[in-house]
Specification:
alpha+beta; ten-stranded mixed sheet; elongated; MacB_PCD; about 425 residues; transmembrane helix; single chain; two-stranded antiparallel ribbon; 15 helices
Length: about 425
């Protein structure tokens, strides 16, 4: 064991027992590190959890990639494209695609005795993946959807059901305007709640065949296809690859295929989520600054208190570099203990919040009803390593105060 490390451990033990070292200075230094690290862990966990929660809800309603009619982009009308078995097989053949499903939409209106509400009826086929809605189902069941017959059963959101004073099993009248007004009576088979108001207040889910008949389309025509990916990180590359093969091709009825990712379909939501990263960086820099400042203050106080010891070490032949290393090692011990408490506080918050949802949010504003947290072990390690390195580097400058201490004067220092 080197001399500097041995002396540092000795000073650290004395500081732990309150001997000859300012206990308040040590506590302030460790508290600064602990609070700073805890805030960084919580901030990163909350932002990652929030982004993941919102992104998963957007993808749950619209999948990662959509193929629709190019004419539908610049029109309020729904324009169909042909998505047959051969095309679905071809799309499913891409390495990054995990699932392909069709959908059709029809704008309409729900009317009850007391109120009316605009909505979009979304039809899906038997290949529909129900896992997302199953997670948020609060009442009833998800019907087995069909592309050949209609059960006239729908899924409706809890917010829409509450607004229209509807409950499970109620029959609702829906109206659709084309050349004339068409009506359909549907039965509520299930009620879901995602707290994603932009979708909850808009979509009703039913059979693909019903929506296609309302639109007057051929059986193979649909509003579009939805593609789910195995890895979200491959979204941009996969979208580009499929677009090269599909964009601007025409189907047998003259419809033009157009490929867009979920980020292109919802640019405002994803731009908002990207802004959260900037907030995290601001918090990280501020907390590292606070932690570094408290460590610098604590180290300077301890150096001043140990001036007599520094003079003795210099008189015995110790170099400035060796003594500086001694106090930097001592700072590392304090930083390590502070980081230990910071990790305990941060992880305890994450565990308690994920299990009990202690802190609530307004779902109308934030799309979630509790503060979401997501723990990433790699980011957790990077935060710890970054905090340690930043704190030690910030102490190198103040440690030069040791070189200004004169042995002859310091040994008489009281």
């Amino acid at each position: 064991m080197s001399l500097s490390l041995f002396i540092a451990r000795r000073i650290y033990r004395e500081s732990d027992g309150g001997k000859q070292v300012s206990r308040p200075a040590v506590l302030i230094a460790m508290a600064g590190i602990a609070i700073g690290l805890a805030v960084m862990i919580i901030a990163v966990a909350v932002v990652i959890g929030f982004k993941s929660e919102v992104r998963n809800k957007v993808i749950g309603f619209g999948s990662h990639i959509q193929i629709t009619n190019l004419d539908a982009v610049s029109s309020y009308e729904t324009h169909p494209i042909v998505v047959g078995d051969s095309m679905m097989s071809a799309l499913a053949g891409y390495p990054e695609i995990s699932h392909v499903q069709r959908f059709s939409t029809k704008p309409g209106m729900i009317k009850t005795d007391d109120a009316f509400q605009g909505m979009v009826l979304k039809g899906v086929g038997p290949e529909f993946d129900p896992r997302f809605l199953q997670e948020y189902l609060v009442e009833g069941e998800i019907p087995v959807f069909s592309d050949s017959v209609s059960s006239n059963r729908v899924l409706i959101s809890k917010s829409l059901a509450t607004k229209m004073k509807l409950k499970l099993g109620d029959k609702i009248y829906t109206y659709y305007i084309q050349d004339d007004v068409r009506a359909r009576r549907l039965t509520i088979a299930g009620i879901y709640q995602t707290n994603f108001s932009e979708y909850d207040n808009l979509f009703l889910l039913t059979d693909l065949s019903l929506v296609n008949r309302l639109n007057g389309w051929q059986p193979e025509q649909v509003t579009g296809g939805e593609l789910q990916l195995k890895d979200y990180d491959k979204l941009e590359d996969t979208t580009y690859e499929i677009a090269i093969d599909t964009d601007n091709r025409k189907d047998e009825y003259g419809g033009t295929y157009y490929v867009r990712s979920i980020e292109q379909l919802n640019p405002q939501i994803f731009a908002w989520l990207d802004l959260l990263d900037l907030n995290v960086w601001v918090i990280l820099f501020l907390m590292i600054g606070v932690a570094g400042f408290t460590m610098i203050s604590g180290l300077l106080i301890i150096i001043i208190e140990r001036t007599n010891m520094i003079g003795i070490l210099k008189a015995l032949g110790a170099t400035n570099f060796t003594i500086r290393k001694t106090f930097l090692w001592f700072a590392v011990f304090l930083i390590g203990k502070g980081m230990l408490w910071g990790n305990v506080i941060g992880l305890a918050f994450c565990i308690l919040q994920s299990r009990f949802g202690i802190f609530k949010l307004d779902p109308e504003t934030y799309y979630v009803d509790t503060v979401p947290v997501s723990f990433n072990i790699i980011l957790f390690l990077l935060i710890n390593i970054g905090t340690l390195l930043a704190a030690v580097l910030m102490l190198i400058g103040p440690s030069y105060l040791i070189t200004k201490i004169n042995p002859a004067n310091s040994m008489r220092y009281e």
